[in-house]
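User: Can you help me understand a structure? I only have the sequence.
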Amino acid sequence: MNDLHKFGNNVLHWACHGGDLETVKLIVSWNLLDVNSRGWDSWTPVMEAAVKGHSDVVEFLVGRGADVSLVDSDGDNVLHCACSGGDLETVKLIVSWNLLDVNARNNDGRTAVYMARRYGHPRVVKFLVSRGGH
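Assistant: Let's start by predicting it. Here is the structure, written out as tokens:
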């Protein structure tokens, strides 16, 4: 069994992880895969893009119906994922939509600020705190 199937990710997950917007657009244009499909650890394609800091892919997917309120098997939403990755522009984009509570907690009670601290992203922590995060 290859890794594609073992982890449950489809080609859209992998394309979002890689971050090439044109590739993601092509795959989405085929209308064969759900933009909210679940892969490894119940991650969605937008979570893959967010953790890697591909804000252009995140924005594109949301424009195509990606649901940022979905959570993975750990209870992390797309903001948790973006904060783990540490790309400030991606975090700012997600927060700017006002769709998620910056203090939402995952299954372990951890917030996005906690994730940013845990993975060593002080600029993300500072930004979130300025937006009421704790």
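Now, to help you interpret it: DSSP finds nine helices and no strands in the chain. The CA atoms of residues 36 and 48 lie 11 Å apart. Let me know which part you'd like to focus on.
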